Amino acid sequence: MKIAMIGTGYVGLVSGVCFAELGFETVCIDKQADKIDGLERGVMPIYEHGLEEMVARNFAAGRISFSTDLAGSVADADAVFIAVGTPSDVDGRPDLSAVYAAAREIANAVTGYTVVVNKSTVPVGTGAEVARVIHETNPDADVDVASNPEFLREGQAIGDFMNPDRVLLGVPSPRAGQVLQTIYQPLKDQGAPVIETVRESAEIAKYAANSFLATKITFINQVADLCERAGADVDDVAQAIGLDPRIGSSFLKAGPGYGGSCFPKDTRGFASVARDYGSDQEVVDAVIEANENRKYRMAERIVDAGGGDLRGKTVAVLGLTFKPDTDDMRASPSLVIVPELQRHGAKVRAYCPGGMGNASEMLEGVDFCDGKEDAAHNADVVVVLTDWAEFKQMDLVQIGQRARGNTLIDLRNLFDPQQVLDAGFTYFSVGRPASQAMQGSDLGAIEDMPRFAAAGE
Ligand code: UDX
């Protein structure tokens, strides 16, 4: 069984090397020669834990190779996976031109029976269209087109691939199903559930899964707003509802809004594609709007906590990536929050353990610092935007000594409020009442403190 993987982005590269690890001869193909050159030299185009070692191991064993030659590489493959980018166009619809371009190239290159498999996240109906394009380009091509979406999370992508919650196969024929079942047999042997269904169900399931998770996050973020006003603690509320197995405890962490390469794009893609089918996804529409608004509201809260006017003030921003353990800045809340703070006059000093390289190309006018202590230097307000372990473990007393002001705004609820108070900060977190550092005998301070959400709204 030979596998060709078109596209060496997140999904393509991780899936390709994992197929090699499972024992299949795999070639990863990309148009970008510099990426392919780098991969052959062991240089990873993305930051993913364990990836470099796995590539090196399989490259040395001759199970994985890299190429810019699509036609030559897919010719003798039994399965050709398409894992190219599907960026959003202005209406939120995914741009599928790279998928169809790959389909046309594949059509002229395949020999013998080949299963072409969409791994890219695509709207329902794309598999049928890819099949049409292939047969129109080359009526003699003996090809079936299947759908096999990936549910990888950045930072845990290899673990997610090797120990999946489920493998989803959308197949147009038993023959195509057989090829994919063989490819996933090693994971099945380890206990992974494999769902075989029609292509359209698999396509919808991927969008629906991401939209549902985005909905869960957005829901708890709105509950957090109520908790702030009512004096409740959103983490306790999340625990209490999450223990009901019908709800489930994951993805109930309140924060500054979801970001990343998937949720923002896939919710918008799902809503707009559903509309094309005459099915309004009103819930998902509301989620998209609420999440967008939330990022601006978080910026407003920082401005309010900083006294309403940030002119002449310095804000230290800790964490810029959309989540920890990645260098990915795509749709990160920081891309809205930092410019909003600057618009209100703040000078921003920022540090992120993984995102500094990408952030410096996406954020203007920011002082990028060497570490969290450096970022906190002379800051009036310290803000935590991303839940990196490095921040959770930081010495708050030391950060406080470096800062000029004593306001800590933690949009990820990393700290126990008492711990922050003991370090001398006034503490604003998410979905919990604000707590103010007590000076001397000022014991009424906490009670008098306005609720975080109430300020300025
Ligand atoms: C997501 C899906 O989890 C994955 O299955 C899919 O294949 C791709 O999209 P990823 O984008 O890597 O993966 O990130 P994820 O860990 O899911 O987090 C997405 C965003 O939601 C982040 O901004 C994160 O901070 C936020 N989030 C997540 C919360 O705010 N609260 C939570 O409880 C969980």
From TrEMBL:
Substrate binds at residues 151-154, 206, 251-255, 259, 323. It catalyses: UDP-alpha-D-glucose + 2 NAD(+) + H2O = UDP-alpha-D-glucuronate + 2 NADH + 3 H(+). Residues 316-417 form the UDP-glucose/GDP-mannose dehydrogenase C-terminal domain. It comes from Rhodovibrio salinarum. It is an enzyme of class 1 (oxidoreductase). One of its GO terms (biological process) is polysaccharide biosynthetic process. The keyword Oxidoreductase applies. Its EC number is 1.1.1.22. NCBIfam families: NDP-sugDHase (TIGR03026). The active site is at 262 (nucleophile). This is UDP-glucose 6-dehydrogenase. Belongs to the UDP-glucose/GDP-mannose dehydrogenase family.
